């Protein structure tokens, strides 16, 4: 048996070494210092075999945007088990304690990014958002079907990012579900670090904003660039790269102006944007989809409903619905059972029911649908949700629907 207890601040370095061992990682001094600074701000749980740390899990104290509001949602990170203690219940013990603490603290949601997608479904997590990797061939001018916003662009010093683009980011976060809040430390350590954690050849962060001088930005572009790759004879093997880390825009025309800027930077030939939303307007207003291509699609944020009643009654609903749900939850039995959901634009109730269920589903599938990014009807078609009353899944989809698909690029 292992003992689950909090990891004190003076044990963070030990926890880092444990995680680096599990992930086969050897970060340099700068990355280690960055990880240490972030972990100091996290809630940290350790699994100890005697005095030996054999499992670790940290949680960022996030608030997540959900339809109509935001809710407490710890973001799990550095989840790791020592190779000597695999398949001995260490991760299960850590996860059970984390979910218990989430409920006790009044946090109805828990989220993570899965390093191995096969692991977290059994703990009740479902993929609640999707991300796209989009590439633009910028060896020629970007062809668009709409006219870019003509207002001026200017570069902003990263030191001023929180003041200039922080409010723009916060407004965008509330327009689209699935986005955790971003503390000053996360801005500094994760988004604006001089050296990129994943690619040391990339340059420092650059921030371009669009809007009239003296006015709040109508949008911004956060990006890094990489020089062209040459062979030993000085011949170019691949053109320079513009990596778009974040692009937020108030209107499609603003987005068009920012994409045009990214695609027109000298000495570059490719724009690559990782983690774009599945309903990115660029995919519609690009005039040539051979020039603007989706090269990957992947599950992004995984969500867990720690308190189903609180999660369902707190969010906004797009249409009236009244259904009896039979919910399975192997890890949190207090969520399991038969409940009547009555919801609509005026609010929602979720109470124990005796009537026959209209839908039977697992908590992981309800989590996948909760933000509006997965349709219940798709899960019925996949054999994962049982529909006992015809039309029940479609009615729940209509009530869960959001104007924009949920999305985040805040990996943690």
From TrEMBL:
<feature type="active site" description="Proton donor">
    <location>
        <position position="120"/>
    </location>
</feature>
<protein>
    <submittedName>
        <fullName>GNAT family N-acetyltransferase</fullName>
        <ecNumber>2.3.1.-</ecNumber>
    </submittedName>
</protein>
<dbReference type="Pfam" id="PF13527">
    <property type="entry name" value="Acetyltransf_9"/>
</dbReference>
<feature type="active site" description="Proton acceptor; via carboxylate">
    <location>
        <position position="412"/>
    </location>
</feature>
<feature type="compositionally biased region" description="Basic and acidic residues">
    <location>
        <begin position="178"/>
        <end position="189"/>
    </location>
</feature>
<feature type="compositionally biased region" description="Acidic residues">
    <location>
        <begin position="191"/>
        <end position="202"/>
    </location>
</feature>
<dbReference type="GO" id="GO:0016746">
    <property type="term" value="F:acyltransferase activity"/>
</dbReference>
<dbReference type="InterPro" id="IPR016181">
    <property type="entry name" value="Acyl_CoA_acyltransferase"/>
</dbReference>
<feature type="domain" description="N-acetyltransferase">
    <location>
        <begin position="2"/>
        <end position="147"/>
    </location>
</feature>
<comment type="similarity">
    <text>Belongs to the acetyltransferase Eis family.</text>
</comment>
<feature type="binding site">
    <location>
        <begin position="115"/>
        <end position="116"/>
    </location>
    <ligand>
        <name>acetyl-CoA</name>
    </ligand>
</feature>
<dbReference type="InterPro" id="IPR041380">
    <property type="entry name" value="Acetyltransf_17"/>
</dbReference>
<keyword id="KW-0808">Transferase</keyword>
<dbReference type="Pfam" id="PF13530">
    <property type="entry name" value="SCP2_2"/>
</dbReference>
<dbReference type="InterPro" id="IPR051554">
    <property type="entry name" value="Acetyltransferase_Eis"/>
</dbReference>
<dbReference type="InterPro" id="IPR025559">
    <property type="entry name" value="Eis_dom"/>
</dbReference>
<feature type="binding site">
    <location>
        <begin position="87"/>
        <end position="92"/>
    </location>
    <ligand>
        <name>acetyl-CoA</name>
    </ligand>
</feature>
<feature type="binding site">
    <location>
        <begin position="79"/>
        <end position="81"/>
    </location>
    <ligand>
        <name>acetyl-CoA</name>
    </ligand>
</feature>
<comment type="subunit">
    <text>Homohexamer; trimer of dimers.</text>
</comment>
<keyword id="KW-0012">Acyltransferase</keyword>
<feature type="region of interest" description="Disordered">
    <location>
        <begin position="173"/>
        <end position="202"/>
    </location>
</feature>
<dbReference type="InterPro" id="IPR036527">
    <property type="entry name" value="SCP2_sterol-bd_dom_sf"/>
</dbReference>
<dbReference type="Pfam" id="PF17668">
    <property type="entry name" value="Acetyltransf_17"/>
</dbReference>
<dbReference type="InterPro" id="IPR000182">
    <property type="entry name" value="GNAT_dom"/>
</dbReference>
<dbReference type="InterPro" id="IPR022902">
    <property type="entry name" value="NAcTrfase_Eis"/>
</dbReference>
